[in-house]
Specification:
Blueprint (H helix, E strand, L loop, with lengths): L4 H5 L18 H6 L8 H9 L8 H11 L2 E4 L2 E5 L5 E4 L2 H12 L9 H10 L2 E2 L3 H11 L1 H6 L21 E7 L10 E7 L5 E6 L4 H16 L4 E4 L8 H10 L2 E4 L9 H10 L1
Parallel strand pairs: 3-4, 5-8, 8-9
Antiparallel strand pairs: 1-2, 2-3, 5-6, 6-7
Length: 277
């Protein structure tokens, strides 16, 4: 009986040789069995390389296919598209297109230009795929760096409007509040607050429309505090409509709309809304 078995297991074997050969973690069989997406130019490549036309094409498809074949050139192992400028551009897959757009837009020599200029750079680099212009525009719009640093275009800019308040009840902010349990079919609270005195007028309402706003202004504001000089609201359809515009014009009230990117313009009404909630 061996009484020192544990000691034997801890002995250092000086005869053990170390194998310095690294273990390869690549599996060639798995690479061969991977199902790859069929390139968009596979049919054209087969036709140019071997003259084969897909069997599932009808007469109209074959006629269109053969007409488009004149715009392609096969130079093993690549297929090239003849552009309108008679220059050859290599047809690429979707995977290659993503890498190409990154180099033509995000790289240090890309410049983060818009979609059209990025597409022009791709064409100048000698590449082509059918959805080139659409993909480059979407890629440029989704670019995180461009969204963070790009300025607001003139088309999307909101006009700046100054707010002048001099006397009590001259300027009112108005807004609808929701997210309350329905009571007597009322789902909204229409709130108006004076910018100077912070006086609040509010009513419950089943609807949020222009008629409700006009009725509220006439009954709760105009007849009690007089017609104000300015009414400030957001850009909702219940405030920006022809009925309310005509009513305010009739009473000589100036309507100012808070910009979507600067809701603090109507901040006093928002503060009153939070207090009511």
């Amino acid at each position: 009986e061996n009484l020192v078995a544990d000691h034997l297991s801890r002995l250092v074997n000086s005869e053990v040789t170390k194998h310095e050969r690294e273990v390869l973690e690549e599996f060639p069989d798995e690479k061969l069995l991977v199902v790859q997406e069929r390139p968009w130019f596979a049919d054209m490549t087969n036709y140019k390389a071997s003259g084969l036309i897909p069997d599932d094409f009808n007469w109209h498809h074959k006629k269109k296919f053969l007409r488009e074949a004149n715009q392609y050139v096969w130079d093993d192992p690549y297929l090239f598209k003849i552009g309108a400028d008679n220059l050859l551009r290599r047809c690429v897959t979707k995977e290659e297109a993503t890498s190409i757009m990154w180099h033509c837009h995000n790289s240090p020599y890309g410049g983060h230009y818009n979609g059209e200029r990025t597409a022009a750079k791709v064409l100048q680099s000698g590449f082509f795929w059918p959805t080139l212009f659409k993909d480059t525009c979407e890629y440029a719009q989704k670019c995180d760096n461009c969204q963070r640093t790009d300025g607001i275009s003139k088309r999307n800019e909101m006009p700046l409007q100054n707010i002048l308040v001099v006397e009590v009840f001259d300027c009112w902010g108005i807004d609808f509040v929701r997210s309350f349990p329905s009571s007597f079919s009322n789902e909204y609270i229409l709130v108006a607050v004076d910018y100077v005195s912070k006086w609040v007028e509010a009513i419950a309402s089943p609807k949020a429309d222009g008629k409700t706003v006009i009725k509220f202004l006439k009954k709760n504001i105009f007849t009690r505090f007089g017609t104000p000089r300015v009414l400030i609201s957001d850009g909702g359809s219940h405030f920006c409509n022809s009925q309310l515009a005509k009513a305010l014009e009739h009473y000589g009230v100036r309507h100012k709309v808070a910009s979507p990117y600067h809701p603090q313009t109507n901040g006093q009404a928002e503060v009153s809304n939070r207090e009511i909630k």
